[in-house]
Design a protein that fits this description.
single chain, 31% strand, alpha/beta, Rossmann fold, 14 strands, 215 residues, 4-stranded mixed beta sheet, 8-stranded mixed beta sheet, 6 helices
């Protein structure tokens, strides 16, 4: 029986690229997962794994999530209650924070304590948004990082960063005029600031690890 990976459709995010990347892994690795883009809370509740992409402003993405009837309740039931493996991508990761400070202060999901603040590189020649390939610095071993080497290059596009309250929640960082959180995890909840669906072999390896992850 196929095991469903639900990619949340809430009007934000590079859904089709994430869907295509995950489908490629399913095909190559014969994982028997069914990759489903959905805005149906019932299907989210039934999923084995959940992915939350996100592109745009924090407040707009949070509003979009709230306006899908029953979606936040379904996510809380599955992720917090049922401990279903969860992955947030880009702004989808930032929404895990307690608060986003883009165009005012806006409450996040508060699943990983911290705040989302504007990038302020120490080198004035570095432009914001941070766009392009940067290397990962691995904070500690984790199943999601299996087969990913220190210094591996991944693709970023963002103007804001998640600063966690607890340093232990940080899986990996990158440098862009200062240390920036690149990946987080706590229990069954994980997030990446980079785009694995655009990060070629390293991104596919990360997604493969996610499909195999048993937190």
């Amino acid at each position: 029986m196929a095991r469903t990976v639900a990619i949340i459709d809430y009007g934000s995010g590079n859904l089709r690229s994430a869907e295509k990347a995950l489908a490629r892994i399913v095909e190559e690795e014969k994982t028997e997962h069914d990759i489903l883009v959905t805005d149906d809370p019932a299907r989210v509740r039934a999923a084995e794994r959940i992915v939350l992409p996100g592109v745009g402003a924090f407040a707009d993405c949070m509003t979009g999530l709230k306006t899908v009837p029953g979606m936040i309740a379904a996510l809380e039931e599955s992720v917090l209650g049922g401990r279903v493996p969860f992955l947030g991508i880009c702004v989808g990761m930032q929404l895990l924070a307690s608060v986003g400070r883009e165009f005012g202060d806006h409450a996040g999901l508060d699943w990983i304590e911290g705040e989302v603040v504007r990038l302020t590189p120490s080198d004035s020649s570095l432009k914001v948004p941070h766009m392009g390939w940067n290397d990962l610095h691995l904070s500690h071993a984790h199943p999601l990082l299996d087969g990913i080497a220190e210094g591996a290059d991944v693709y970023f596009v963002h103007s804001f960063e998640l600063r966690t309250r607890n340093p232990d929640d940080v899986l990996a960082t990158t440098d862009y005029g200062g240390t920036i959180t690149a990946a987080v995890a706590r229990g069954n909840i994980a997030g990446v600031q980079f785009h694995p669906e655009k990060s070629q072999a390293i991104g596919l390896r990360f997604l493969k690890n996610f499909l195999a992850w048993e937190p």
